[in-house]
Write a structure and sequence with these properties.
The protein has a six-stranded parallel sheet with strand order 3-2-1-5-4-6, with helices on both faces. It contains ten helices and six strands, in the order αααβαβαβαββαβααα. It has two domains: 66 residues, no CATH class; 148 residues, SPOUT methyltransferase, trefoil knot domain (Alpha/beta knot), CATH 3.40.1280. By secondary structure, it is α/β, with parallel strands linked by helices. Helices cover 44% and strands 12% of the residues.
């Protein structure tokens, strides 16, 4: 059964742009100006041009690190495949960062890839491969892309390898051949989001996307947002 807050939020998201904007302005009056400014500042740096995907992440620490890394570098969407194990972050490590990003769960890699293709994403596998790219040479401006990390023990699946538009690796100088998924994600997301922000592509969220995300964050910040809105009058 949906909660009152969930129902109220769903109703808000059905409003036209002007009506939604007026209600956001109304809710802003019940928050500290510094809080509203902080939400808007973070929102301005959010992107869906790039998303992160995790195949069957086994360790809760790695699941937690992926969430925190996405949030830290402004990547709004994290897609997970839970065909063989649950994506189960440790709440003590996540520390509430999961409420600021969108988690999308799939029962199979094929289902996830189909959904990503439908949204216009390039499939980018994080694995050494012939003709692969490094974080510095990958073509960030060629179109939206989904960065896929495989399971801890086996790496990306054969399904991903067969579907990938590009492969991305982090060059190593030592005896170690690869890094832990959490370390790899931190390096790649830092480098690629920095390159995106410095590029000429339209990587920011659209106006409607920003409004919808802002009102969701406001609902998470205000204890009684649904009842506050009952007092709103045009």
């Amino acid at each position: 059964m949906k909660s009152t807050a969930t129902k109220a939020l769903a109703a808000l998201l059905q409003l036209d742009d002007e009506s939604l904007a007026r209600r956001i302005q109304y809710l802003s009056g019940f928050m500290l100006p510094e809080r509203v400014a902080g939400l808007e500042r973070v929102l301005a740096m959010r992107t869906r041009y790039m998303c992160v995907c995790a195949e069957n992440t086994f360790h809760p620490q790695n699941a937690s690190a992926l969430i925190r890394t996405c949030e830290a570098f402004g990547v709004q969407d994290l897609y997970t495949v839970e065909e063989f194990c649950r994506f189960s972050p440790n709440t003590r490590i996540v520390r509430g960062t999961d409420k600021w990003i969108d988690l999308h769960s799939f029962s199979s890699t094929a289902e996830m890839l189909s959904g990503l293709r439908g949204k216009g994403y390039r499939i980018v596998a994080t694995s050494p491969h012939a003709g692969d790219f490094t974080p510095e040479t990958f073509e960030v401006e060629a179109g939206p892309f989904a960065l896929i990390f495989g399971t801890e023990h086996e790496g990306i699946s054969e399904t991903v390898k067969a579907s990938a538009d590009a492969f991305l690796r982090i060059p190593m100088c030592g005896f170690v051949e690869s890094l832990n998924v959490s370390a790899s994600a931190a390096i790649l997301l830092y480098t690629l989001t920095a390159r995106l922000r410095a590029s000429s592509v339209s990587w920011r969220l659209g106006e409607r996307e920003r409004a919808e995300l802002l009102v969701r964050w406001m609902f998470g910040s205000l204890k009684d947002a649904p009842n506050i809105l009952t007092r709103y009058s045009e």
